[in-house]
Predict the 3D structure of the following.
Amino acid sequence: MRTKVAIIGAGPAGLLLGQLLHRCGIDNVILERQSPEYVLGRIRAGLLEEGTVALLGEAGAGARAHREGLVHEGVELAFGGGRHRIDLKALAGKTMMIYGQTEVTLDLMNARKAAGLISIYEAADVRPHDFDTDHPRVSYVKDGVAGEIDCDFIAGCDGFHGVSRASINPAAIRTFERVYPFGWLGILSETPPVSHELIYSNHARGFALCTMRSKSRSRHYVQCSLDDHVDQWPDERFWEELKRRLDQKAVDSLITGPSIEKSIAPLRSFVAEPMRFGRMFLAGDAAHIVPPTGAKGLNLAASDVHYLSRALQEYYDEKSSAGIDAYSEKALARVWKAVRFSWWMTSILHKFPDEGDIGARIQLAELDYLVRSRAASTAMAENYVGLPY
Ligand SMILES: Cc1cc2nc3c(=O)[nH]c(=O)nc-3n(C[C@H](O)[C@H](O)[C@H](O)COP(=O)(O)OP(=O)(O)OC[C@H]3O[C@@H](n4cnc5c(N)ncnc54)[C@H](O)[C@@H]3O)c2cc1C
């Protein structure tokens, strides 16, 4: 098989890239290790920047998000027994949209199917080869039969544990990592949200977040120990712990119900540099991970893909390598700012085991300053809604 761009991974990054390339006439094939049902079953991100929503539209997959997504003009910060709203629209001129990653993935899959593009699911042993030459290729095994795709470029969109980054000569790549000493225990329930907007809570018992996927489906998180296991957290224990970490008004409007999904995610900041290796590019979680506090993971995957699709379009339409040469630097400039913001949101909202009472008081002082200072609130709002591409 031959294609222009072989994309490894059918998560949001791979699917969005495939659609954007297709829309400008660049043929591509996607290889995905899992089945479509498995990919659709992964409950992950749910908050989209305006830029991400616009890219979905550009990819021909934005109609349902515009119909069903919930637009949020602000977020709330709870600390010291009170709650304070950051008006994103007024301070930064932009809004956020609640629309689950599962829905984004489904819309992109449907658009890909409608366009008749080739996706090879349940592809085993996917491997990129010769990306440091002009003739890269990707090998795989499907239903026990070995296959190979010759291509002009390889896009490694295969997430943090994928094969693309792992195939790079360690001498050619530099990685930066911080692992946080706690995780997020999250549950999804068929219950209405506590409040119209998200509530981020800094509490002496640890961080909590009330978010949602729709008007009837809530997603709640509590900070937990890395040693915790979901079996130790029956629903009743989760709801009790969440209530302890919320202000009274939120507790009064919290409607509890059985969880339909429950999981623990560790928190990590990670960046790999550069994001281009000859004729292979990394995009999304394959190149970087942020703790979910700033809601940036999925949105960064989208901005990488924006830069990469434009660069490839320039290569094919204008016969210019300037875009692909600049891809890594451009994408990383935005990535590092989101890494900083996600670290900062994490550091002011969570309980850090080693920082003691003085650390907790400094956090409260910072939060108080944040909600009282227009300059500080604006800085948070600008980063939260997503920096310009
Ligand atoms: C448990 C969890 C919870 C999260 N919660 C949030 C959140 O609340 N908010 C937020 O903003 N972000 C969250 N994120 C991050 C967000 O989901 C990711 O940033 C986003 O999925 C990135 O998309 P991606 O396409 O780059 O990677 P992925 O979604 O990881 O997609 C990569 C794809 O590549 C496939 N793949 C992997 N290896 C191979 C291989 N060898 N061959 C072929 N295919 C392969 C995988 O099966 C997968 O489908 C969460 C992530 C996780 C893991």
Q: What stands out?
A: The pocket of flavin-adenine dinucleotide is lined by residues 8-14, 31-34, 39, 44-45, 101, 123, 126, 157-159, 162-163, 265, 284-285, 292, 295-298, 301 (CB under 6 Å). DSSP finds 13 helices and 20 strands in the chain. The chain has a mean pLDDT of 97. The longest strand covers residues 174-189.
